[in-house]
Structure formats: structure tokens, C-alpha cells
């Protein structure tokens, strides 16, 4: 039987993004990581509903020479010690690399679906940027956009839900699941 997952972007969803000129950036090192309010509790609630929790994150600063893989992996170890995440999947490429894993392309999600036998139509993607929502939609997931008011374009695909925080995204998924259960979906 296929499993279901909640795919989560990292920066701006699980940890606070570093905002410069109205745009979000990742923390450079572990000491700068600040988990978002309610992240651990929200993920635990999703875990209790049987979802796999998979972080899918673009980290192009590695390709751009501004960040090292070791620093990204250290941040993931730090977060994994504090959050009930099943796996971190990372695209280290930049747009110019033309890879299939850089969001808004759905490669990180579809490869995870193949590896874990995930039912994408029964899964969700939570993100704070247009790339996350578009990747989730392209993969066939329901999408939840945490609208942080960044000074950049919005999603090309309308999200299934637009919320202000990770706890609100979790509540929306819980409600959608409860309604689906009542309707026999």
C-alpha cells in the first residue's frame, strides 16, 4: 500500500529565513538556525497521522560557491536532532544547471515518491515560496503556501491553501484530512 507524505521546504518553513532586501535566504551556519515557532509540535502531529516527513530544499549557494555541503549537512543534523523529520533531500544546483531536482521542478518529490512508494495525490507540499508550490503542484500534491510577504512573485499555480505559519499549515492539513475521512475519501 502506498504511503503518504508531507513534503516541507526548509528555510522559512522549518527555520526562520534570513531576510535581506525583502527576500529570504538560508542561514549560513548552525549557529544562525532558529526553528520556527511550533515546528516540532506541528511535525509531531503530522507524524501521528502517519505521514512521512520529507524536507525538500534548494540550496543553490553551494553551486554558487557561497556555501559548503558540509555546512548544509551540519544544519540538517542539527535540525534532525530537534524535529521528527524522516529525511532531508537537497538540490545543490543553480537554475543554470538545468537539473530536474531544483524546485519548481518536481524531481525531489517524484524521486522520493519512487523510493518510498508515496501516493503523491494523497500527499502535501508546504512551502513559503512560489518554487515550492509550483513543485508540489507539478508532482500532483496538494499545496500549502506559507505567505510570508516576500518581495518576489507568487506561485504560478494557485495553492490549495494560503496560510501565515507552519502551525496554521498543519491545522489546514488536519482539517482537510478530517473532512476527507468523513466524506470517505
Please tag this protein with its features:
alpha/beta; 6-stranded parallel beta sheet; 185 residues; two-stranded antiparallel ribbon; 5 helices; 33% helix; Rossmann fold
What kind of sheet is the major sheet?
A: 6 strands, parallel
- Distinct helical segment count: 5
Order of helices and strands: EEEHEHEHEHEEH
- CATH fold label: Rossmann fold
Description:
The protein has 185 residues and is an alpha/beta fold. The protein has one domain: Rossmann fold. Helices cover 33% and strands 18% of the residues. It is built from five helices and eight strands; from the N terminus they run βββαβαβαβαββα. The protein has helices spanning 39-48, 69-82, 107-116, 130-139, 166-182, and strands at 5-8, 18-20, 23-25, 52-58, 87-91, 124-127, 142-146, 161-163. Strands 5-4-1-6-7-8 form a six-stranded parallel β-sheet, with helices on both faces. α4 links the parallel β6 and β7 (142-146). The radius of gyration is 15 Å and the shape is globular. The relative contact order is 0.19. The model has no long low-confidence stretch (mean pLDDT 95).
